[in-house]
Amino acid sequence: MGAMLQIILGAVMLGLLWALMAMGVYITYRILDIADLTVDGSITLGAAIAAQGIYLGLNPFIATLLAVFGGMVAGLITGLLHTQLKIPPLLSGILTMIGLYSINLRIMGRANLSLLRMKTVYSYFTAWGASQLVSILSFAVLCVLGIVAFLWWFFGTEMGYALRSTGDNPQMARAQGVNTKSMIMLGLILSNGLVALSGALIAQQQAYADVQMGTGAIVIGLASVIIGEVLFGTRNFFNCLISLVLGAITYRVIIALVLELGMPAHDLKLFTAITVAIALALPVFRLYLNPIVKSAKGGA
Q1: How far apart are CA 207 and CA 118, in angstroms?
Q2: H/E element holding 210?
Q3: CA 135, CA 262: separation in Å to the nearest integer?
Q4: Domains in the chain, start-ordered, CATH in brackets?
Q5: Position 1 confidence tier, pLDDT thresholds 50, 70, 90
Q6: Residue 36 contacts residue 28 (beta carbons within 8 Å)
């Protein structure tokens, strides 16, 4: 029982760290209606900047803030490629992602950078006597609550409504005087800043940054978004944010339990892809199932 509780707590901790990335994916995928593949590069960028900063002796909080800034710059580049150079958003994200691979290697100076026995943002909690798991879990909860509060406030402002209207109906937004190009860039900057923050915190949690750690990150983000929406609903914007967090935690708990049941680790990405495909196809399944259920009730 103790071992199972430890596994679930570890999954919740990871879910909270990945929830920050899921919120970034939500901004582009749901609010702006853009599939932004920059995510695969910017999550590694955040990890690389934070890890290299800590390795060089920077305060871990400053290193993490630099990581967020790096992610925001990556989002800005994708936004400029799309809005100024008229490159389709999907291709803009791919171009930035490919470029970030080389940039991340240059930042770290190697493919893998270890942070073992180095001070991280979690070390301050450990210094108060908490265990490593409790320290990371506590910091992750505070960080997620802070980001949820910030996003709830921001998207309730005039600029936040302008950003949401740009994704809902860009023609109408332009007719109301909204600079949709600026709003798209703002959304991409905000999204990739959150993704880089997630990468920085994950790197400090696992005590290393790896140039390959972002591969398939967009799929994990989408899995968290879709699972959260399907299981916990989207009644209002605050509910959406909470659903994202719970979706990321649920996804990580499912992964932990599946691994515990003996599924090979190299099948995880296939399992994730199938999970996302099923979740995305749920509305279609409902269309087929509703007539069957109604006819069954009518026959009864």
Answers
A1: 8
A2: strand 208-210
A3: 29
A4: 2-270 (1.10.3470)
A5: very low
A6: yes
